[in-house]
Amino acid sequence: MIVAADYPFLDLMWTMIVFVAWIIWIWMVIVVLGDVFRRRDASGAKKVIWTLFIIFLPLIGVLAYLIANGDSMAERSAKEARAQQTQFDDYVRSVADTGGAAAEIERAKGLLDSGAISQSEFDALKTKALAGA
Q1: Are residues 130 and 66 in the same domain?
Q2: What is the pLDDT along the chain (133 residues), one digit of tens a residue?
Q3: 35 near 66, Cβ under 8 Å?
Q4: How far apart are CA 15 and CA 67, in angstroms?
Q5: pTM to 2 decimals?
Q6: How many domains does one find in the chain?
Q7: Of the N and C termini of the chain, which has fewer Cβ atoms inside 10 Å?
C-alpha cells in the first residue's frame, strides 16, 4: 500500500519545478530553431551549423544563439507581427460593411447630382440598395 508520506510535499514541489523548467527549455529550443529557419539573411549552411550546434550541444548552442542573435530575433519577431497585423487590417477593411443602403443611396445621389447618371438609373440603384438591406 502506498502512503502519501512516501512522497513528501517538498519532493512534489521539486518535481513540479523540474517539470516546468523542462517545458520552458523545450519551448526555448523550439523558438530558437524556428528563428534559425525563418531567417532570410542566413545561408542554408549557416542554418545547418546552428541546428547541429543546438542539437549536439543544446545548452551551449541555445545560449550562444541567443547571445549572438538575440536583438535581431526581437526585431524579426516585431517585423513579422507588424506584417501580420497589416495583413489582418487589410482583410478586415476588404470585408467590412460599406455603410449599408443609406451609403449606397448617398453615392447614387451624388452621381445623379453630378449628372453622371439619369433619374431612372438613380431609381434603379436606390431600389437595388433597399432590396439588399
Answers
A1: no
A2: 566 667 788 999 999 999 999 999 999 999 999 999 999 898 999 999 999 999 999 999 999 999 999 889 999 999 999 999 999 998 888 777 667 788 888 888 999 999 899 999 999 988 988 887 5
A3: no
A4: 30
A5: 0.61
A6: 2
A7: N
Range(s) of the domain holding residue 129: 98-133
Q: Please tell me the distance from the alpha carbon of residue 80 to that of residue 86, in angstroms, as a whole number.
A: 10
Cell of residue 89, nine digits: 487590417
| Same domain assignment for residues 43 and 104 | no
12: region left, alpha or beta (phi > 0 left; psi from -120 to 50 alpha): alpha
Are 104 and 98 in contact by the 8 Å Cβ rule? The answer is yes
d(CA 29, CA 43): 20
Separation of alpha carbons 84 and 102, rounded Å? 33
Amino acid at 29: V
State whether 40 and 74 are in the same domain: yes
**Same domain (yes/no): 58, 114:** no
What SS3 state is found at 100?
A: helix
CB 104 within 8 A of CB 76: no
